[in-house]
Amino acid sequence: MSRKVRLWFFIISVLLWVVTLFVPWAAFAQEAQQAAPPPPKIDSGDTAWMLTSAALVLMMTIPGLALFYGGMVRRKNALGTLMHSFIIAALISVQWVLWGYSLAFGPDKGGLVGGLEWLGLTGVGLDPNPDYSATIPHQAFMIYQLMFAIITPALITGAFAERMKFSTFLVFMLLWATFIYDPLAHWVWGVKGWLRELGALDFAGGTVVHISSGISALAAAILIGRRRGYGHEPMPPHNLPFTVLGASLLWVGWFGFNAGSALSAGGLATSAFVVTNTATATAALAWMFTEWITRGKPTTLGAASGAVAGLVAITPASGFVAPLPSIIIGLGAGVFCYTACNLKTKLGYDDSLDVVGVHGIGGTWGALATGLFASKAINEAGADGLFYGNPGQMKAQFIAVLATWVLAFVGTTIILKVLDVAMGLRVSEGEEIQGLDLSQHSESAYALELPM
User: Fold this and answer.
1) What residues does each domain of the chain span?
2) What is the distance between the alpha carbons of residues 4 and 14, in angstroms, rounded to a whole number?
3) 3-class DSSP state of 204
4) What is the pLDDT of residue 448?
5) Sign of CA dihedral 414, 416, 419, 424
6) Which pLDDT value is given to residue 18?
7) At what angle do helices 44-59 and 138-156 cross, to 10 degrees?
8) What separation in angstroms does the CA of 401 have from each of 171, 181, 283, 398?
9) Angle at alpha carbon of residue 99, lines to 195 and 178, rounded to 5°
10) Is 124 exposed, middle or buried (0-12, 13-18, 19+ CB in 10 A)?
């Protein structure tokens, strides 16, 4: 064999060896590339719905809750009560960006709280996060959850309306959001949160929002004490049209609260929308007729309170139940919450605006009712409840309710006791008689001289 032939034979052999070695790996790489799941892609429809829902939930606090609470207090405390909701929206917006969101939804630390990796929204960008926001920007999910973090502490303010120092109020709200709300949100909604891992269901905030605020309100009402003259002086709402308007805004905004929690614009959002409206309407009627039977006349305030009770109760169940069970949930909310609100005088605590009866009891009923009526036919990602053959779901719901009660009551008690020593909780007797509008803000809600 000539030298030239041997050279060509060597070149061809090397080429064949390279091809033999490379082709299987190339095919494998191509196969792996084809098998890899596509990266998360932003859906413009889902994003539009979530941004709209975020705005609706913000509307629930300002102006909805501000008007609902502001109308129920006496005239001399109207601005102070409006100020509570308004300034919480500002305070928690900053807290959430700096550290609140990271504690609530950041990388898990033992199932109890999120880590600090997302401080200042570091790493929370405009791309989807598959754990929380598969079809919307991560920041869209973050801003939507912010609105929940705003309204929850704002709900508590109804328990101590007309008597808490504004300076102490600000510090309390900041501490409560950091040490109660943020960890609880992680327990229930955060990836690897211990209640989420347990299988507890809370679609839109029955435990995280309503039980936490309602039971914290109970602790606050007990520790801060009654308003001066409570039980001896008349303290009627000074502006019921404000209250009804606020309740109406809450009803409308709650569709963003519940249907928005589907995190997409589709069938689950539609189902949550339908059952939210149905339960709310049923609860308003149930409260009204219960009051009519027991007191002789139906009141506007009662109907508005019943609607809010229905909104509260359906919240944890809204993504898991069908329309007919939502009627039962609404019926229970109207009756149970009305009864609870009337018990406060017998139990001796002054919950000024019925936060405990509406949110604490309504949220508890809704969380437990979720364990009764949840169905995987409505939401495959959920679970069947007791009435659909899964009694174990009730156990998870009971544990979630109990854990939330303990965290909210004990945690709030500790925070308030520390603040009482450091700053004092209440305004002075003279300031309370004068009213918080003038004593805390040097303003008056009305220029006309009207009865206090």
Assistant:
1) 44-440
2) 16
3) coil
4) 67
5) negative
6) 39
7) 20
8) 27, 14, 22, 5
9) 55
10) buried
- Paired strand residues for 133: 129
Question: What single letter denotes the amino acid at residue 107?
Answer: P
C-beta separation of 224 from 293 below 8 A = no
44-440: CATH, from 2.60.120.560, 1.10.1740.10, 1.10.3430.10, 3.40.50.2300: 1.10.3430.10
Pick out the chain residues at pLDDT < 50.
4-12, 14-33
Closest listed residue to residue 361, CA positions, set 313, 323, 395: 313
Task: Write out pLDDT tens, residues 116-131.
Answer: 999 999 999 999 999 9
End-to-end CA distance of the chain: 118
For the chain, helix (H) and strand (E) counts, in that order, are: 19, 2
pLDDT for the residue numbered 28: 38
Q: How many residues does the chain have?
A: 452
pLDDT for residue 35: 52
Nearest to 226 by CA among 81, 351, 340, 343: 351
Q: Residue holding tokens 């084809």?
A: 34
Please give the pLDDT value at position 7: 41
